Amino acid sequence: VIRVLDAIDENTILLGTDRYADGRYLQEVHWADVNTGSTGLIVSRTSEAKIASPDSLLFTRGATVFEIGYDRAGRTTTGQERPVLSGLRAPNTWSGAVFDLSDDGTIVYLPGGVQGSERRLWQYPKDGESVLLPFSKGAFEEGIAISGDGETILVTTTDESDGMWSLAKGSLDPPRLRSFISVSDRDVFSPILSSTGDIAAAMTHTSSP
After folding, report:
1. What is the pLDDT of residue 11?
2. Is the pLDDT of residue 209 over 60?
3. CA dist 17 to 25, 27, 145, 176, 191, Å?
4. Which among 11, 66, 90, 178 counts the fewest CB atoms within 10 Å?
5. What are the pLDDT digits (tens) for 182-197?
6. Any idea what DSSP says for residue 63?
7. How far apart are CA 1 and CA 176, in angstroms?
């Protein structure tokens, strides 16, 4: 995925990219020359950035905005990045928060912190009340499955170090949840389970499905 983030000058734009490479999910900010089509890396581990001034740019990692110097002639960053503002709403555990800038440098954003990094699993018996399952908090995604006998669950989880999805497998008696399926260069998600929990299937995705 490639998105235009900002205009650096009349010939150069700022791009945010999301892709699979080197066995992981990568988010990067690049410059692109609109005349020649040439590109270059500016900032890694994020795909959200804006030009803040003629010689600096802002970008986010997680819920924090950072500032770093930028040399337009050399198309490279300069100096050390420094945190400017924290507490922005990051939509998930692998993406930087979205923000915008006014002409005078005012940052506009939604507060809320990183979403989905400490989710819990619950169950609701047909004739009862919701019960919190005795598993630790985790970066659980919406992909979840339970066997027909109610004894086995599969849940999609995010590795916060590289943003890749994998599956965790759990049992209710005894209560435990552990890593089940992880592929280095592919997301694994949206599981399904058989009635007895002995057969499972899931979807995978990478830059070349």
Report:
1. 93
2. no
3. 11, 6, 31, 37, 27
4. 178
5. 887 788 998 999 999 8
6. T
7. 37
